[in-house]
C-alpha cells in the first residue's frame, strides 16, 4: 500500500525523571483533582488561570466590532457574508496579520439566518485554530519569543550548563533504527517474524482452501395436543407468510418517512473536546469503536432494533475516515463533469425531481469483530450494529448526469466500459475519498442511485454527509460517498487510495497491505465490495440477557427476534433459526417496512424477523443460530471466512447459552445466560475468546521496554503537536513523528497527548493490529512510575463512578459533567474600557444552572481543530435556588430571612440565566489578544456558546463547610490569594459567606493582585461585601503598575504581602488560590509553604 509519507519513526532522547523526582512524586491515591498545577479530569490546571489572563499587553482602544445579522434582506445578507469571507481569505493569503475579531466578523453565522437548512443541533465554527492566530502568525511578540528560543537552543547545544563551550555537538534527534529498518513495509516485517514462506507454502502443499408473547389462547392449547411447539410455530408462520407477502405494496418515491424521532440530543459529548468534530452533537447511545476521533460508531443492538423498521437518524451507524467537513448549504457547490454543470444546493433541490425511498445501508465491515477474534484484521471492531434503514431523499444521479450532457448509451459488445466517479469534500489521511461505479448501473433508473440531501425528511446530519451524499441502494456503505463535491465520467476505473485499498475481500493468504501479492490482489477488479451480501443477526435474546429456569413451564413461549438484509435489491425470502446447531430449522415471520417494493421486484430495505418458541425448548438449547435465504435460494455459510480487511462477514450468527447460579438477592434461582459472539469495540462480554494466534501476538506486544521511569508531572509537559507523548499499557511513547503519517489523522493521537490515563490503552488495543504495535514499539521511551500507574487506575475508577452517577441527571439543571450544552448570548454590558458582563439564557426553559459555590463552568467555542475552552465562575447566580432540593442539603446556607431581600433574590439560582464578567484582552500591533475574550466581545446577540460542569473539586456548602474531592472539611478562617480573573471563584465564596445564614463565625481575608486600578474586577461589589461583613471580610489589593494616586499595596505578591494580610496557619484555617501561573507557583505557593501551610491539608486550588 503506497503512502505519500513514509511510516518512519523518530524520537527525542530523554533521560527520564530523576531519582529525586521519582522519590518526591505524590502518592496519587485519591486523584487529587484540586492539586495546583496538575491537570484534573477536565484538563484544567486547578488554581491557575489561563495564560491569556496573565494580561500580556495593554488593553487597546479596539472598538466593539460586534457582528449582526439583523435588518438586511436575504440577498443582502448572503452578498455581504460572501464578500466578508472573500476579504478575510484574501488577507490570509497575503500573509496579513489576522486576529480573532477579524475572523468572527469575517465569517458570518448562516445558521442564525437559515436554521431550516441544517440539522438540529448545528453549531457555528470559526474556520481557524487558536494556535494559527496566536502562535503561527508573525506577530512581533511571536518573533521576539522565537528568537529567544532559538538562541537558548543554540546555547544549549554548544555550551555546558556552566558555560563551557563543547566541540562535539550532539543532536537531540535520533533514528530508532536505520532508515531501511525503520521504514520497512509490513510484508518485510512479517517475513522477519517467521512468515517468510507463507505464500509458497500455501501453493506447494496443495492445501484445500476453505472458503415474547406470554398470553396463550385456547387454540394454541388444542394445537399442543397434536403438535410440538416448533410445529405450531411453523404452521402459523407459513400461514402468515402466504398472506403477508402478497399484500406488500410498492413505493412510488413520494412518501414521507414514518420515523420522526430522529434527533433529540443537541448536547455535545466531552470526548469531542480535542477533535475537529468538536461542533457535532452525537447520540450518547452510539458505541465508539475507534476512540474519540474519528467517529466510527454503532448503536447498541437492542436499541437499534427497538428503534423500528425505519431507523432514527441518531441511531444509524456512522463511518468516518477523518474529520467531518464543515460545509454550508449556501456556499457548497456540486461540480459535475469538470465544470460542465455546477450546482448550488438550492439548484439541486429545485431543478430536479426528488424521490424519497427507504434504503438499508450497512458497512461492509459489519460483524468484523468476530473475524478479529480469529485473527486480527486491518479493521476495527464493528459488532453487528453497523447497519440501519432510513428514508433518503434527493434527485436521481441519472437526471443530473443527463443535465450535464453525459450520454446514456449503454456498454455493448466491443465498446469500452465507462465509470462514474465521486469525490467527497473531506480530507482523510490518505487523500481525497473517491470511488466509482459502472456508468451503466448509475444510468439505469430502476437502480435508484440518488443524490440525497435529506434523511428521514430532515437535512442530512453532518455525520451522514451534509449537505449532499451519494446513495446507491443495495451497495455497501463504502461506495456511498458523503459530503459529495465532484462527479465525473471516465473510461477507466478510479485509482485513488480509498477505492483500491479499502472495501475489498481478498484471499485469506493475503495478510498485509503491502508487497507484490497484496498489490496484485488489491488492484484486482474482482476483490472490490460493491453489492451488499446476504446477512442476518439475532437481536433477542440480547447479549447478557438472563431467563430464570422457573420460566420453563408448559405453554410459555419466548419470541426470538432479529434483522436480515441482502444487496442488489434482492428480497430476503426466508429466515430460519436453529436450536440444535443446524440439525433442524424453524421458519421465521418476516416484517418489512411499509411500501418496501420498488420497480416491481426491488427490495432496498432490511427486514425484521421473529419466531415464537416454547420456553422449555429455548432453555434446553445450547445455542441459537440464524441464517437467511435470498431470491437465488442461496443461504449464509456456517463458518466465517477470514480476510485481511475483515469485510463481508456473513456466517451464521450464533447466540450461546449456559446455566448460571443466581445471586442471594435472586434467592439462588438458577438462570440461563445468553451471550452473543462478541460485543462491539472493546467490550468483552461475548462467548468468543481470542484465538491462540491472537494470544501469542498480544504477549509479544506486551514484552520489552526500556525501564526509564517518567513521573506524571513530566509526561503532562509533552502535550503539544511538536512534542507529543502518549501512554499505552503503562509505557511512555514519543508519538511526535507519527502525527505526519498516522492513518487515522493526527487528531486521533493529539487527543491523548500528555494524558496520564488508561483511555489511550483501551482505544489503541481495540483498533490496531500487530504491525501497528511494531511501529509503536519504535516510539518507546520508558515506563510510568508506580505512583503514576496507581494514579491512572484510581482516576479511571473515579471517572467511571462519576459518569455512572451522572447518567440520567441533568433533567432539572443545565450543567452536565460529560456533555456540552448550548446557551445563548442574551446581553452584553460594558463595565469598563475592557471588561464586559455577559448574560446567557439557559436552554429548554430550564431555570437552574446547577453550580455549587466555588465551582466553575467551562465555556466552549468551536474552532477548526478543537474546542476553545476556558473556565469561568459566574458572578450570578451566587446562591442556590431555595426551591431546588439538591442545592439545599445544608440549611445554614439558606438566606437569613423568610422573606429574602431583593439583593439575595437576584443572586439566587433559578432565573434561567447566568452572568459572566470577563476582561477583554484586545489585540495590538504586537499580539492578537485573547481568544475567548475577543470572541465573546464580537459575536452577535443570539449566538450560542457551550457550557459544561460543574468543574472543580471544591464546593462551599455554607457555615465554613467545604466538600473537597468528596471529603468534608471545615474552615472558619479562610484565606484567598487571587489574581486577575481568578477573583471570580473567590468572589462566589465571599458572597455566600457574607449573605448566607449561619455564616457569622466565618471570616475571610483576601489578597487580590492586578496590574492597575482599572484591572480590579468587581471592585464596587467587593467594597459592598466588606461593608456588609462588618469586619468579617478584609480585602487587600496589590497592583504591579498602579497610578500615582494609588494608596494601596504596590508591587507583586510575596511573602511579606501574604503574611501581612492573611490569617496565619492554624486550626480551622485554609488557603484557596486562583491566579496566573507565575504568581501562584513562583510566589504564593512557596510563601505559604514557608509559613507552615501544606498542600492537600490546608492549601487548595480552585
Overview of the structural elements:
With 1102 residues, the chain is an alpha+beta fold. The relative contact order is 0.12. It is built from 31 helices and 50 strands.
Topology of helices and strands:
Elements lengths: L9 E3 L6 H6 L49 H21 L5 H7 L3 H4 L11 E2 L3 H7 L3 H19 L14 E3 L3 H4 L3 H10 L2 H7 L13 H7 L4 H19 L20 E2 L16 E3 L7 E4 L1 H6 L11 E2 L13 E4 L4 E4 H7 L2 E9 L5 H7 L12 E9 L1 H7 L15 E6 L9 E5 H5 L6 E3 L1 E2 L2 E2 L9 E3 L12 E7 L6 H4 L15 H7 L12 E6 L5 E3 L8 E9 L6 E7 L7 E2 L1 E3 L5 E2 L3 E2 L3 E8 H6 L2 E8 L22 E8 L10 E5 L16 H11 L6 E2 L1 H5 L2 E2 L2 E6 L2 E4 L12 H4 L8 H9 L2 H8 L2 E5 L1 H21 L12 E12 L4 E7 L14 E8 L3 E6 L29 H6 L5 E7 L11 H8 L5 E8 L2 E5 L2 E4 L2 E4 L2 E7 L3 H13 L7 E8 L8 H11 L3 E7 L9 E2 L4 H7 L7 E6 L2 H15 ...
Parallel strand pairs: 2-38, 8-18, 31-35, 45-46, 45-49, 46-47, 47-48, 49-50
Antiparallel strand pairs: 1-3, 4-36, 5-6, 6-7, 8-9, 10-11, 11-15, 12-13, 12-18, 14-17, 15-16, 19-21, 20-30, 21-27, 22-23, 22-28, 24-27, 25-26, 28-29, 29-30, 32-33, 33-34, 34-35, 36-37, 36-41, 37-40, 38-39, 38-41, 42-43, 43-44
Helix pairs in contact: 2-3, 3-27, 28-29
Amino acid at each position: 500500500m503506497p503512502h505519500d509519507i513514509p511510516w518512519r519513526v523518530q524520537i527525542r532522547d530523554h533521560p527520564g525523571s530523576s531519582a529525586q523526582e521519582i522519590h518526591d512524586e505524590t502518592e496519587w491515591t485519591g486523584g487529587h483533582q484540586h492539586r495546583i498545577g496538575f491537570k484534573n479530569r477536565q484538563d484544567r490546571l486547578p488554581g491557575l488561570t489561563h495564560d491569556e489572563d496573565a494580561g500580556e499587553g495593554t488593553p487597546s482602544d479596539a472598538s466593539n466590532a460586534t457582528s449582526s445579522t439583523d435588518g438586511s434582506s436575504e440577498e443582502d445578507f448572503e452578498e455581504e457574508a460572501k464578500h466578508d469571507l472573500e476579504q478575510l481569505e484574501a488577507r490570509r493569503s497575503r500573509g496579513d496579520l489576522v486576529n480573532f475579531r477579524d475572523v468572527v466578523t469575517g465569517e458570518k453565522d448562516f445558521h442564525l439566518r437559515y436554521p431550516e437548512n441544517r440539522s438540529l443541533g448545528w453549531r457555528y465554527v470559526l474556520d481557524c485554530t487558536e494556535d494559527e492566530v496566536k502562535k503561527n502568525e508573525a506577530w512581533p511578540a511571536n518573533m521576539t519569543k522565537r528568537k529567544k528560543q532559538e538562541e537558548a537552543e543554540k546555547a544549549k547545544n554548544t555550551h555546558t550548563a556552566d558555560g563551557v563551550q563543547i566541540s562535539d555537538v550532539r543532536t537531540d534527534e535520533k533514528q530508532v533504527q536505520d532508515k531501511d529498518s525503520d521504514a520497512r513495509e509490513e510484508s518485510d516485517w512479517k517475513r522477519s517474524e517467521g512468515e517468510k514462506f507463507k505464500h509458497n507454502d500455501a501453493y506447494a502443499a496443495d492445501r484445500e482452501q476453505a472458503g415474547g408473547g406470554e398470553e396463550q389462547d385456547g387454540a394454541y392449547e388444542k394445537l399442543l395436543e397434536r403438535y410440538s411447539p416448533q410445529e405450531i410455530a411453523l404452521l402459523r408462520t407459513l400461514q402468515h407468510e402466504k398472506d403477508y407477502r402478497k399484500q406488500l405494496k410498492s413505493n412510488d418515491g413520494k412518501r414521507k418517512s414514518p420515523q420522526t424521532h430522529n434527533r433529540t440530543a443537541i448536547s455535545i459529548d466531552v470526548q469531542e473536546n480535542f477533535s475537529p468534530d468538536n461542533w457535532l452533537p452525537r447520540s450518547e447511545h452510539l458505541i465508539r469503536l475507534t476512540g474519540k476521533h474519528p467517529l466510527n460508531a454503532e448503536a447498541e443492538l437492542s436499541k437499534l432494533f427497538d428503534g423500528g423498521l425505519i431507523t432514527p437518524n441518531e441511531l444509524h451507524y456512522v463511518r468516518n475516515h477523518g474529520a467531518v467537513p464543515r460545509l454550508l448549504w449556501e456556499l457548497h457547490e456540486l461540480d459535475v463533469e469538470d465544470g460542465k454543470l455546477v450546482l448550488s444546493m438550492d439548484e439541486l433541490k429545485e431543478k430536479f425531481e426528488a424521490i424519497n425511498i427507504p434504503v438499508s445501508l450497512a458497512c461492509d465491515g459489519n460483524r468484523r469483530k468476530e473475524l478479529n477474534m480469529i485473527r486480527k484484521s486491518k479493521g476495527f471492531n464493528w459488532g453487528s450494529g453497523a447497519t440501519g434503514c432510513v428514508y433518503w431523499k434527493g434527485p436521481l444521479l441519472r437526471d443530473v448526469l443527463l443535465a450535464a450532457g453525459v450520454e446514456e448509451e449503454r456498454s455493448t459488445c466491443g465498446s469500452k466500459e465507462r465509470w462514474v466517479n465521486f469525490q467527497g469534500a473531506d480530507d482523510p489521511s490518505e487523500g481525497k475519498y473517491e470511488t466509482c461505479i459502472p456508468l451503466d448501473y448509475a444510468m439505469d433508473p430502476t437502480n435508484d442511485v440518488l443524490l440525497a440531501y435529506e434523511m428521514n425528511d430532515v437535512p442530512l446530519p453532518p455525520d451522514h454527509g451534509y449537505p449532499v451524499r451519494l446513495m446507491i441502494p443495495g451497495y455497501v456503505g463504502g461506495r456511498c460517498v458523503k459530503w459529495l463535491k465532484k462527479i465525473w465520467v471516465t473510461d477507466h476505473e478510479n485509482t485513488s487510495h480509498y477505492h483500491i485499498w479499502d472495501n475489498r475481500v481478498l484471499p485469506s493468504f493475503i495478510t498485509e497491505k503491502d508487497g507484490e501479492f497484496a498489490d496484485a490482489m488489491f488492484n484486482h477488479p474482482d476483490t472490490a465490495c460493491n453489492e451488499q451480501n446476504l446477512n442476518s443477526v439475532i437481536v433477542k435474546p440480547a447479549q447478557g440477557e438472563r431467563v430464570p429456569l422457573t420460566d420453563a413451564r408448559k405453554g410459555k413461549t419466548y419470541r426470538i427476534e432479529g434483522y436480515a438484509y441482502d444487496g442488489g435489491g434482492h428480497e430476503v425470502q426466508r429466515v430460519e433459526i436453529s436450536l440444535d446447531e443446524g440439525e433442524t430449522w424453524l421458519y421465521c415471520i418476516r416484517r418489512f417496512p411499509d411500501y418496501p417494493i420498488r420497480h416491481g421486484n426491488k427490495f432496498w430495505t432490511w427486514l425484521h424477523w421473529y419466531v415464537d418458541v416454547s420456553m422449555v425448548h429455548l432453555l434446553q438449547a445450547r445455542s441459537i443460530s440464524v441464517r437467511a435465504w435470498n431470491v437465488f435460494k442461496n443461504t449464509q455459510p456456517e463458518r466465517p471466512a477470514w480476510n485481511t480487511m475483515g469485510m463481508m462477514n456473513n456466517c451464521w450468527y450464533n447466540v450461546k447459552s449456559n446455566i448460571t447460579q443466581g445471586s442471594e438477592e435472586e434467592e439462588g434461582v438458577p438462570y440461563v445466560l445468553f451471550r452473543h459472539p462478541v460485543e462491539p469495540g472493546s467490550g468483552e462480554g461475548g462467548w468468543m475468546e481470542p484465538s491462540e494466534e491472537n494470544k501469542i501476538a498480544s504477549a509479544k506486544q506486551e514484552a520489552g521496554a526500556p525501564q526509564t521511569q517518567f513521573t506524571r508531572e513530566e509526561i503532562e509537559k509533552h502535550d503539544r503537536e511538536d512534542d507529543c507523548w502518549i501512554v499505552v499499557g503503562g509505557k511512555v511513547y514519543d508519538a511526535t513523528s507519527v502525527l505526519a503519517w498516522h492513518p487515522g489523522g493526527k487528531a486521533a493521537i493529539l487527543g491523548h497527548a500528555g494524558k496520564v490515563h488508561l483511555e489511550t490503552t483501551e482505544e489503541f488495543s481495540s483498533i490496531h493490529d500487530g504491525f501497528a504495535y511494531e511501529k509503536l514499539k519504535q516510539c518507546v521511551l520508558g515506563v510510568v512510575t508506580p505512583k503514576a500507574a496507581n494514579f491512572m487506575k484510581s482516576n479511571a475508577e473515579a471517572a467511571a463512578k462519576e459518569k455512572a452517577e451522572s447518567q440520567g441527571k441533568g433533567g432539572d439543571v443545565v450543567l452536565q459533567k460529560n456533555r456540552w450544552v448550548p446557551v445563548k448570548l442574551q446581553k452584553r454590558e460594558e463595565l469598563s474600557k475592557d471588561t464586559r458582563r455577559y448574560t446567557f439564557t439557559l436552554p429548554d426553559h430550564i431555570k437552574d444552572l446547577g453550580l455549587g459555590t466555588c465551582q466553575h463552568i467551562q465555556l466552549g467555542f468551536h474552532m477548526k481543530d478543537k474546542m476553545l475552552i476556558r473556565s469561568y465562575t459566574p458572578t450570578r447566580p451566587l446562591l442556590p435556588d431555595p426551591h431546588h432540593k439538591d442545592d439545599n442539603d445544608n440549611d445554614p446556607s439558606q438566606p437569613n430571612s423568610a422573606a429574602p431581600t431583593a439583593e439575595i433574590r437576584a443572586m439566587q439560582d433559578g432565573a434561567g440565566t447566568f452572568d459572566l464578567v470577563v476582561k477583554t484582552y484586545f489585540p495590538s500591533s504586537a499580539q492578537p489578544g485573547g481568544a475567548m475574550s475577543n470572541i465573546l466581545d464580537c459575536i452577535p446577540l443570539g449566538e450560542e456558546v457551550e457550557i459544561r460542569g460543574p468543574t472543580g473539586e471544591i464546593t462551599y456548602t455554607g457555615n465554613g463547610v467545604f466538600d473537597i474531592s468528596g471529603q468534608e472539611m471545615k474552615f472558619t478562617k479562610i484565606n484567598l490569594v487571587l489574581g486577575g480573573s481568578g477573583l471570580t471563584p473567590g468572589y462566589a465564596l465571599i458572597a455566600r459567606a457574607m449573605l448566607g445564614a449561619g455564616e457569622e463565625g466565618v471570616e475571610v481575608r483576601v489578597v487580590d493582585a492586578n496590574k492597575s486600578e482599572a484591572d480590579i474586577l468587581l471592585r464596587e461589589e467587593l467594597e459592598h461585601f466588606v461593608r456588609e461583613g462588618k469586619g468579617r471580610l478584609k480585602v487587600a489589593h496589590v497592583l504591579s503598575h498602579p497610578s500615582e494616586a494609588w494608596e494601596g499595596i504596590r508591587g507583586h505578591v510575596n511573602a511579606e504581602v501574604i503574611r501581612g494580610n492573611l490569617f496565619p496557619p492554624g486550626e480551622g484555617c485554609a488557603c484557596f488560590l486562583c491566579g496566573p501561573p507565575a504568581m501562584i507557583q513562583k510566589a504564593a505557593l512557596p510563601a505559604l509553604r514557608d509559613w507552615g501551610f501544606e498542600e492537600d491539608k490546608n492549601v487548595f486550588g480552585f
